Amino acid sequence: MNIQDVILGILCKQPHSGYEIKRHFEEYFSFFFDASFGTIYPTLSKLEGLNLITKEAVRQEGKPDKNVYTITEAGKEHFRSYLVQPAEKEVLRSDFLMHLYFGDMADEETMNTLLREGLQNKRDMYTDLEQKMNQLDGKLSPHQKLCIELGLVQYKAFIMKLEHVLESSGEGPAPS
Amino acid sequence: MNIQDVILGILCKQPHSGYEIKRHFEEYFSFFFDASFGTIYPTLSKLEGLNLITKEAVRQEGKPDKNVYTITEAGKEHFRSYLVQPAEKEVLRSDFLMHLYFGDMADEETMNTLLREGLQNKRDMYTDLEQKMNQLDGKLSPHQKLCIELGLVQYKAFIMKLEHVLESSGEGPAPS
DNA sequence: TAAAACATGTAAGTAGTTACATGATTCC
DNA sequence: GGAATCATGTAACTACTTACATGTTTTA
């Protein structure tokens, strides 16, 4: 998986500008993928050069003009070949877990802060994702809904485990 | 968090060669961090140049010689300053979820394979991690054990959700 | 009139991977 | 003698991020 595949996937459904693609990343799958404008725009140029998408300038009222990209038949074919490949290994990079792993070298105060902030952070992520699912409910395919639900159950498991640990460590109940 | 911090953290406990550091990555935290030899060796040279670690050639019997690196006081100080920083945002990159998200564009057979392979993959990861925890039980600090447990509960939640989905999709019970 | 949102793009740098290259030593 | 493991390193490349640069339009 690289950004090219993801952009082609988004454009399969309907044409979008680079700005809209970035919004799509944030709205629909920020929890398992992200990319910056610094990658999106050059990638769109590259895909256009490969004739996998075409560009069209669109004037807007009340907003600056935008470049809207449409996928070509070759682009769709390219995306289909991505889709039937086996999924690559999932990669997690967690600075929280790294801090926790080396926790014995830090003082108790630092570790308490780490755990509390880690817990609050996951609670916020859970709430955001849940809200997103409720807002988007009608627009989501069953597959897309499952994506979000898989995120939610994993967050929930993490939260419950950490709450349990904080509760039984003599710090009193973790505040909700 | 970058590789430098992680290597310094490992060397805080005891001196290691580059090869041993790679083994440590694989054994103790492959599920939330990884790095290749192509990064480890240049990073060790760089850390040595910064006087954060020192190198010593060690002859071994029955094995090739190795370069063993020891952390300096400056290196320890550097690592401590990493440890008290707030943890960076966790990053997940999941090709499985991306495939699932675009599932409507694939046929049923492809999606079934994806879900089954995704489930089996997580089950394998769960088993590996569980085995590791049991093997390492005596060597692990409570913090380190919690790291692994947080991994396990999240894997478990993913597995249970996917099993439930596969069971109720008329495909018969998912094989264990 | 300033901030926020919309919109596009580039340049420099970071942080890594993969593949290559080499060699010792052990075990089957 | 060949595979596996131990061991180190480099070169080319990939894939990004961050910061910079610019400009429009709306909203408070």
From TrEMBL, chains A, B:
It comes from the Bacteria. It comes from Paenibacillus helianthi. InterPro entries: Tscrpt_reg_PadR_C (IPR018309), Tscrpt_reg_PadR_N (IPR005149), WH-like_DNA-bd_sf (IPR036388), WH_DNA-bd_sf (IPR036390). Residues 7-80 form the Transcription regulator PadR N-terminal domain. Residues 92-166 form the Transcription regulator PadR C-terminal domain. PANTHER family: NEGATIVE TRANSCRIPTION REGULATOR PADR, TRANSCRIPTIONAL REGULATOR YQJI. Signal peptide: none annotated. This is PadR family transcriptional regulator. SUPFAM superfamilies: Winged helix' DNA-binding domain. Pfam families: PadR, Vir_act_alpha_C.
